[in-house]
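Appendix B. Chain record.
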Amino acid sequence: MVLARKPLQKRVFFVYNETSFTTKPKGIEMNELIQELKVKIIESLNLIDVTPSDINENAQLIGGDLGLDSIDVLELVMMLEKDYGVKIDSRELGVKVFASVASLAEYVQQYRSEKSN
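Structure tokens predicted for this chain:
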């Protein structure tokens, strides 16, 4: 028995970037983003004796246990723009975003999802 062969057909494959179709910021889960932000805060502000586990994600960020002030906020704003493309362009927004590490992470995630749509 001889099987009939079909002529070879050219196949076309499409590759899509997964991040184009998702609202998550490049696969980073919220807990991972919070941990990443804690590390970046420590590095950006040269907090020598502070570890990520020392920072409570729900604690007040500015004027809280870390003793961050307005100069520190400027450093963090620059870090957010450089590392995440996030812009904070008003004092009112800054007050809301820098309330805690959790609110900062939420804003970064929200900003990224809006930009990807």
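Further analysis of this model is presented in Appendix C.
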